[in-house]
Amino acid sequence: MDSWYEVLTACDPSLNVVQSITAIAFDPYQELLWTGNDKGRVISHFGDGLQRYTSFRSHLSQVRQLLVSDKGVISLSPDSIRMTNRRGLVRWTMSNEDTSNLHCMAYTTIPNSEILAAGKQNNMLVINVARGSVVKKVESMNEIVVMRKSRLVCCGATSGEVILRDPNTFRVEHRIRAHTGTISDIDTSGNLLLTCGFSVRTMRPLAPIPFYSGPCFIRMHPKLSTTVFVVSRSGQFHVCDVGNVSDIHFYQANTASYINAFDLSTSGETLAFGDSASIVHLWSDRKGSKINAYSGNVELPAVPSPAPNVFIGEDDPLSLIGMPYYREPLLSVWPSNMMFEVGNPPPKIDPDIMNNMKMIDFVGYAPNIGNKKRNQAVRWSKKKNKAGTPKFRSEKERELQSGKESKEPINLFEEEAELGAIGTRMPKYYKRVEIKYTLCLITKSHIGSSCSKENCLCCELGFLFRMLEDAVGRNCQASNFLKAFSTIPQAVALDLFEPDKPDEKSPYSMLIQSFNRFILEQLHQECNSDNNPRLLKSLPLEKTSLSVIQQLFGMQMISVNKCQCEAETERNITSFVVDLNYSIKNSKDKHTAPKSFIDILRSSIRRETQPKAWCNNCQQYTPIIAKKIPKSLPPVLTINCGLGTSVPLDYWRSLEKSKPWLQKRISMRLEQDDLIIKELAPDAVVDTIPDNELESGSKGPWYLFNDFLVRNVTEQEVFNFQGLWKTPVVLYYSRIDITDLIDISALPSEIDKSILFKDISISKHRLTNNKTAHLLTPEELPQPGTLVAIDAEFVVLNQEETEIRSDGTKSVIRPSRLSLARVSVLRGEGPKESIPFIDDYIATSEPVVDYLTEFSGIEAGDLDISASKHTVVPLKVAYKKLRLLLDLGCVFVGHGLKKDFRIINILVPSEQVIDTVDLFYSKNRARKISLRFLAWYLLRQDIQTETHDSIEDARTALAIYKKYLQFKSEGIFEEVLEDIYNEGKKYNWKPIPGAFPAIRY
Question: What pTM was estimated for this model as a whole?
Fold first, then answer.
């Protein structure tokens, strides 16, 4: 303590006039020194030489105090408080009627999270550092000018009193009369409180420390608990021990003005003074002093990389240089009235023509040498000159967005279709299941199935088709079906997924055909049971064991294998798909091109091959003759066109448009072992079609499913495959009398209602006293129009993938994938109003990358059946409950239900949805109001204070809807809505917990 000396002085060179330093503070986390001046500017200095690190204007008036936290620096002026990060970016600013004539601030019991600010005003403010909002107001009977935090919050008043407050409750514990005049500074160390020496432990004054220069600043040494630094405005300071006041060391700072601020570093090795001449004086007691014992790294600006040297040759394009950012039109952008078509140079005339040419006057003529057709000319292009004229919106090529824009309904200005479409923004899937939707049979077969298998495609298809029936032309998502499909090991083994990076060479036609064959086999396995319904009226009783898929799509055949040794084996098989075979053997065993579609179809069904196989009679591998003989024809004939990269499309494109190769109607019958095909009706043709398809003609029975767009097309377009961009993939033929052939009454038509009355949970450790839902009773079964409140929480399975384009805009390549984690449904009316009857956590086998605990309340382990203490159910069980409530006609009340229903993958008609986010929305305002703010303003309740709870959110939305009905009945709703927007703007849409606004309703 005997060797304190001045290390250096520093002054901000950017200041044009002298600005007095009014606040100074060492950074306890990094090697930085912060200063604030009387013009509101905050400056930080870095390193031993006090180089300027950052400098920014924080307030309009003087900075009275600085507090440094791990997130940034908090500065206080008489009328505002602001927090910025260390680079000067503003985190929050508080300036209102509560911040008037502030003088000081200090941390409470929660360091870096909460501060207490006071001054010459009636209330002390408790401020949340993270949000920058006042969480509590404490009444103050004194004018506080200085404050320090120790075991208690010590407040120095202008009256000379020191008020000691409890840092938790802010209740006054003691009042100490320390001086007759105002207190200029205080500090604490353990149980010592220094104004001029007062013990908090014994509550009696110690011996005063004389300082005739007039003490203005006091700091206790951070490591030597009884050592104190006392500083006067003239620059004189001394260091002494409060237990031995005779041992005093005097020092004088070399300043020509007055000292306005003083601080001591956390290491106790450095002192800093700030004077009224804008000069910082740095003192130390050793060489190589540090501000903190352990400091973090200071973030330094990145060194800009030098511009690369670009060498441009005569053959290099100018695009190698790139385009600079510009705000005005470039010189190269010429207006359309100055652009002219100069045309291509004329083609060179054949030398043979020139040699035979004869001239008459200035006109030459020559005989046709045979390489040109007579009376022909190049057709004039019908394209309009579009220079300087933008396209109509209906003509423009559109890119499907994956961000927030893609979540809204899509309108492409096309004619309205009564069929729903399935959106394509699903990762790694090319499947189009609309083709099964037109049949409607599988839908009705599985909409009421009670299947215990978690990932059952039959059930998911039933839910999907029911959603498509309700869509009425709207875009739907098949996320639940595709999620279940991705869990099937056979689908993964067959590689039925879209490539990670698809291109024009991706074999989509083969993938679709493989999927078509797989889905029928899979549906047959899943829906086959001991009690299969008799779907076909003409089905013999001995064949009632056939599954629904076999009855509709199955072709019963006999496979005959005959060896050269005359040994013959037969077995019965069922084929769901016919693969077209484009090669037919004639009597001379040579391949000839088939002449008609009927010939190819017949040879593909009744196929004969000569593979090598094992013969049990010969006991060796030998060539055999394999035949497949059909024994019964299905009501629906499924055909894979078999067009891969190696098979030409000449058969489909060779004939004239008026005589298409594909037959619209064919007749098929079996005569003994022979198959005769003449003329049925193709129900669907699946084509890979690009965006620039032909315009549709008059309306007819044919519809084109093009991604999310459904269009009515002409029959001519369906059977015309002349374009190279149009490739037939799958055909469906159905019997003309199929509606009379099928008994639909044999199929279940609705979901079992008892699922609402059953307590279902697959959690192994569910606590019996942790059941939050009270199940419905049969007497409470909802009726059409029954109100229920709903809310759902979600977790993230895949994060969003984005890219930054060359123009600096952000493009979403693949949106984040959310999964349902919890759904709660409450009674909306009756004696048990607001009591939940569904509160299910959804089990997930996929890894969760983000539980979104702050917004969902879901924590790790809540969705794990082996660890969760909640009611955990499979996704299908929760979905069945919601589907049943929808079918029963329930009206769902909630907040922001559009997103909830989209992720749940259920389509609810608008007449069955009451969304409070839309009820309390003004078209004249751009903002939609949060549930938390509505609850704070209308219900005077604080919700979502720490995390979200779906029961609480659903109950709150229901109460807000009841308020809406009240306001509507009283005729004051528009007035209330306007007041909500005004108050929201006033509070920056951030509710203040416990401080509810005064309302007139």
Answer: 0.58
